[in-house]
Amino acid sequence: MAQEKFNEDTLSEQPAIKQLHEKLGYDYVHGDQLDPDLIENCERKSRKDVILEGRLKKKLAEINQNPRLTKESIDKAVRKITHIQAETTLEANRIFHKILISGVSIEQDIGARRQNVTVNFIDFKELDRNEFLAVNQLWTRGQKTTDRPDIVIFINGIPIVVIECKSPVAKNTGVIDAQQQILRYQKEIPQLFRANEILIGCNLFGAKYGTIEAPLEHYHEWKEKESGKAPNMREHPTVKEMLKLGLIEEKDLTEHPPMQEVLIAAILKKKNLLDIIQNYIVFDYSKEEHKVVKKICRYQQFSAVNKIVKRVTTEDDKRGIIWHWQGSGKSLIMVFAAVKLRREEEKLKNPIILIVTDRRKLDRQIIENFQNCNFPNPAQTKSMEELYSLLKTGSGHTIMTTIQKFRKPLVAPLSKSKNIIVLTDEAHRTQYGNFALNLRNALPNASFFAFTGTPLNKKDRNTYRHFSPPNERYLDRYDMRDSEEDEATKPIKYQSRLPNLQIVGNSIDALLKELFPEKPQKELAEIKRRYATIDTLLRAPRRIERVAMDIVDHFNAKIGPNGFKAMIVACDRPTAVKYKEALDKLIGENRSTIVMTINNADPQEWKEKYRRTPTEEDLLTGKEVFQNPQDPLQFLIVCDMLLTGFDAPILQAMYLDQRMKEHTLLQAVARTNRPYPRKNFGLVVDYVGVGRELAQALAIFDKEDLEGIFSVDDIKREIIALGEAHKKTIVFFVSVKRGLPPEEVIQECLEILSPEDTRVEFETAFREFAKGMDILMPDPCVNPFVSDFKFLGMIREGAKNLYRDESLALENCSKKVEALIHAHIIDSGVTEILAPLHITAPDFKEKLQIKGSAKAKASHVEYAIREVINAKVAEDPRFYNSLKEQLETAIETDRKRRKDEADLLKDLVSIKEQEERRGLVAKEKNLTPDEFAFYGLLEAYEQSSNENADEKRIALAKKLFETIKSKIVIDWIEKEDAQKEMRREIKNILREIKFPEDKSELFTREALDLARVRLPY
Hints:
Oligomer: single chain
Largest sheet: 7 strands, parallel
Number of strands: 26
Shape: globular
C-alpha cells in the first residue's frame, strides 16, 4: 500500500466495513445506493429519512409470523416509531428503546371483533431472523446541514449504531475528534439518533463507545478480559507497513490488539449487540444532574453479568464472588443482572431475586438505583415478617433487604426453592460472618453471588466458602490496575503529615508532654496510666487544633488552588465537632460542615446544627453544594458516614485522623479516586499513623490483589520523576538559543512544533512535567525547574493560538500551574506575540507587525486564514474552497523552496485581502451577501469571458435567490414537498438559460445546500 493510501478510509472505515461484512456476517450497501438524490425509485424517499421502511415492513412480517397480522397493522406499527411525539431527542430515544425491547400493541379487526396484536421489531430469540446491514457514507439531511456519517448499522431497517472513523496518521484524527463529530451530528441530524443505541468513535489504535448525549468522558473502551484472542498491534500487517514507511513509531505501539477491531468484534457481534440492546442499556434518573441519562454497560459489567447468568442457568454449583474495585459500577451490575435473569423465562420460571446489604443507607441507594432505571416493582421489605412471607410464598419478586433480618437462626428453611437468586453487596464485612450462615440455611437451594469492592483477605476466606465453589477465588474480577488503565479511577497517593503528632509507639510520652506542658512528670505518668489510650490522645483539644491548622495550610497550598475539595475523617463524633469548631476559627463557618448520625440522646446543639433528613444530606453532599465548584463549602467532616458508597469526583484529599484497617481502610481511601477535570490522583493524608501499620494491615491480602492501590508519597522519588519529565520536555528545544530576543526564541520554538505529531509528543511530555509540578508545588524542591516550566508553558500557549490546537489548552493543566504560566506570560511582555491573529480584526496590520520575522508572520497569517475558511465555508462553499486551494498551493510552493519567506507572506496577505474584498465586490455588483453566494456558485460552473456574461450572471444570481426565497415556508428544510418545488423551479431556470444537462443535477443540489445555510427559516 503506497504511503498516500494511508488515510481515514483505508485505515479505519474500510477495515471496519470488511470486518462487519466478512467476519461478522453483516450485509453491506454503500450509502450512494440509498441516496434519493442519486438513485431513482430509491428506498429512501428523502435524505431526511433514516428508517428504511421497506426493509422494516418486510422483516416485521417475517419476525412476527402471525397469520392474523395484517398489512395495515404493520403500517400502523411503523407509524408508531416514525411519528414518536417527544420534546427532546433523548425522550424520543427512550420511547424508541422501550418499543425495540417490548414491541407495540396494535388494535386490529379479527372477524367481527377487535383484538390487540403485539408487533415486535427485533427477534431477540432467533438471531438469524433479523437483518443486520452496514451502510457507509450515508447522506443525511438535517434542518440546516447535510452530513454523511462514516458507518450506520441498521437492524431490520432501523438505524441502531453510528460509527465515526478517523485516520491515526493525519491531522485532527484522534478518537476524541470522532466523538466530537458524533456530538455535532446529534445536533445537526437529530432524527438519526432517535432510534440509536450505540455510538462509536474509532481509529486503528483507539476506539470508544457511548450513548446519545453522553459527554466525552462517558465514552469507554472495550477490552477482552480473556487474553490471546487477537494479535497485538505489532503483529498487525497494516501496522507493520506503517512502521516501515515511518508513519508511526515503535514507541507508539502497545501490547494490546488494535482497539477498533476489538471493540467491533465484541460489541457488534450480532449476538452481543442484541444482548446489549435488550439487557444492558438503562435510562437512569440522575439526582445530581436532575435529568435522565442513558447508560450502557462497560466491558467488566457485561462480563460479570453473563458469568452470573451462565452459572445460574447451566452449572451445578450456583455461587460466585465478583470483585470489582471501587468505581466500577457494581450497582448497575446488579440492575443488569436482575434484568437479564428476569428474561430467562424458560430456564428460571420467574425467579425471586434477593439483594442483600448490611446498611440501611446502602439498601436505600440500591432500591433508588433500580427505581431510577425503571426496573419494574422492586420491593424494599420493612420487617422481618414481610421478608419471610415473600420468600416463603412469593415468586417473581425483586426484593431488597439488609443482612440483619437474618440475625436469628431459623428452625426450618424459609424456602427450598432453587428459583431464588441472592446477590449480596460488600459481603466481607464482619456481620456477614455471623449472619451469612443463617441466610444460607434459610435458603439452602438458592444461588448465591457476593459482590465486593475490595479484594478477599486471607482471614475472610472461611466466610467466603458460603459464596464460592471450592478452589475458585473470584467468578469475575476487575482490580485497581484495570480501573486505572480504563481511567475509571485515579491512582491514590499516600502521604504522612506531622510525625510528631502521630500516635504510635514511644511517641505517646513525647506527645503527653507537649499536650500537658504544665504537668509534672509524676502527674504525666498517672495520666498515661489511666487515660493514655490512643483514642484518648486523638481527642486532645490542643492536638486537634494543631492538626486543623496543618490541614488548612496543606489544603490552601495543594488542594484548594486546583478547585478540589476534601474530607476530614475524625475518630468519633465529639472529635468531629471539635474539628468543626477549630476550622470555624481558622477559615469561617461556611467552609466546612459535619455529616454524622444524630441520636435522640445527643446534645441539643448537635441536633440543631447537624441533624438532617436524607434528602437534606443528599443536597448538601451532592452537586448543589459540596460538589458545586462555586460553593464555598470545602470540607466534609465525618467519622463513619460517607466512607462507603459516596461518589464525589471533586473530592481529592482525605485527611485521615482515625485508625482503620483492612477493608474499611481500602473502601475509605477510595472516596478520593473518582475522575474529575484536571485531577491526576487522589490523596490520603495520614495524621494517625496508618502508614506505619499499612504493610502489616495489607499483609492479610494477596500481593497481586493490591498491586497499584497505593503510591506512598516519597518526595525523593517524585523529584527524580520530575527531573526525568523535565528532560523529556525541554529536549524539544535544545537547539534554540535562549539568549535571542523573545520573539525570535518563540518563533523558533513554534516552528519546531509545526508538525502535528511533534505537538502530540510535546504535549504528552509536557503533561507529565506539569503533573509532577502539580504534585510538588509549592515545595521549594521545584525551584530548579520553575524557569523552564514557565518557558515551556508559554511556548505551549503560543502553539495553541498559532495552530488553533485546543489539545494544548492550559485548561488541561491544574489551576496551580496554569496560574504560574499565565503570570509569566504577562510578566515577560510577550502576550501580543503569543496571541492568536484574526484576519477580520480591524487592527490586523498592527498585530501582524508584532509577530517578528517574515516567516513568523506568514505562519500566523496562514492559520488565521484557515480559521476563517473553516468557519465560513458552508456560507459560500465555492468562494472559500477557492481560497483554500490558493492557500494550499502557496504553502506547497514554499515547502518546495520555490519562494522566499517574504514572497510567501505577500501571497498569504493577498489571499487574506481577497476575503476582505469579497464584501466590496458584492457591493460593486449590487448584490447582497446571499445573492453573491449564488453568484459564486454560477461563476464556478460557467467561466465565459463574454463581456455580457457577468451581467447575465448577476441577474441570474438575483433571480435564483429570489425564486428560492419565494418558495420558503415555515420549517421548509423539514418538508420534502417544499424542497421538491424548489428543485423544480431551479431546474426550470437552468433550462431557460440552456445550462448543461449533465451538470444540472449537481448544481441544483449545491444550490439547495446553499439555501439551507442562507435561508434556514
